[in-house]
Amino acid sequence: MFLTVTSTAPDATDLGYLLHKHPDRVQTFELPVGLAHVFYPEATAQRCTVALLLEVDPIGLVRHKRFGGGDAFALAQYVNDRPYAASSMLAVALGRVFSTALKGRCKARPDLEGRALPLTVRIPGTPVHGGSQLLRRLFEPLGWTVAETSEPLDPEVPAWGDSPYRDVTLTGTLTLADALGHLYVLLPVLDGAKHYWVSSDEVDKLVRSGGSWLAGHPERDLITRRYLAHQRRFVEDATARLNELDDQPDLDSGPESTPAQAVPAVEPAVPLLVRRREAVLQALRDAGAHRVVDLGCGDGKLLRALLQDPGFTEVVGVDVSATELSRAADRLNLDRLPDSVRARLRLRQSSVTYRDPAVAGYDAVVLMEVVEHVDPDRMPSLERAVFGHARPRACVVTTPNREYNALYENLRDGGMRHPDHRFEWTRAEFATWVDGVCAAYGYRAEFRPVGDVDADRGSPTQLALLTLVTPGDAAGRGEVA
């Protein structure tokens, strides 16, 4: 397998700094599938080309437990195109050999980080299962100009058509990190297969490598399905995480649906889901909480952040859905956590509207983007279960601000941010509900905005920190601007 990347930027040999590979050296790297060689066929101030040559060991692939499979006599293990066609093996080689460049880091020349360069990528022998149209649908939205040539499958039998293999050339002006990230994700997608077993780790790889561009890609669903080998559970997890990274309402992903776009032309540097999670963590720290229950934990986004802070000595994730709890376990890699971390975590199936003695008496309960999923007539049950029975010293509640929806193009007609939302509150409605809970159960509340604040419509997420009033305290309400 062979791939080249050419820069024609001024001082083109700066490509070597970005790749952390010196143009005057030939380097070889041992990989599970064979040997990867990096060298520079040309390196001048006007034009610099780096080549990655992957020598695959086909016999080693068959013998390797992860790659070979169980049927050692299967002819397909020995007679196939895997050692020669650009595929997931080449993507893995890219990730291993150019790992620092993929992250966009350049310690020797930090001035080069984030700089767009005129680049040309050539990948001969690329399997394209979907034809030329798929090739363009994948790369052109990312700023590439696509050129490709193919040969007939058999010159003697024209009716058989062209070979599925293409000699692909991509040209564009992009950062090197973006270019490598596109290749890392899309080479296996073009091939439609992977040379290894796809596990939950692949979701993290996809979101990490494609998070900056994949969420808004018009072929996002196709890319996600192919990259994750059509495994529905992983595809759903990746889709949910990409929706959040794109800081967009989680709308129905049907064929007629278009992702909502916020009106501001400049997207926030930090996605809303990250700011929301950090706001919840800060509220918990401000409340002095060490033993925390995440009610409606879903697939474990907040649980992971809680476990990363040793100040939270006991963490309980609760969800009504066994499927979500299974996703959380996969996402947290429970079987790989150190014993000291694993001992701090407990997952439990239960409901926010039922009394559960197992979640009573904790320092804090979190209801992060949960209450809007509860039917209005069930809210009194939630209040009794959380504030009357579990009765934590503190409770952090976040929920969408309905007024802010007008700043999302697809929600200006009054739609909600998620098809499962039963309601969405304005700031006044949220404050009324919180004040009622405080009066009924003996809490005081502090309100905090989360996300960029609009002068007229407030913040996209509203947060309330409810603290149990102890004898000698005066119940009240505070606000943080």
Automatic annotation (TrEMBL):
Ranges for domain Methyltransferase type: 293-394
EC numbers on record: 2.1.1.386
Listed Pfam families: Hen1_L (PF12623), Methyltransf_12 (PF08242)
Hen1 N-terminal domain residues: 1-242
Catalytic function, reaction form: small RNA 3'-end nucleotide + S-adenosyl-L-methionine = small RNA 3'-end 2'-O-methylnucleotide + S-adenosyl-L-homocysteine + H(+)
This protein's record includes keyword Endoplasmic reticulum: no
Keywords (A to Z) from UniProt: Magnesium, Metal-binding, Methyltransferase, RNA-binding, RNA-mediated gene silencing, S-adenosyl-L-methionine, Transferase
Organism domain of life: Bacteria
Cofactor(s), names only, from the UniProt record: Mg(2+)
Family, similarity comment: Belongs to the methyltransferase superfamily. HEN1 family.
Protein name stated in the entry: Small RNA 2'-O-methyltransferase
Organism: Spongisporangium articulatum
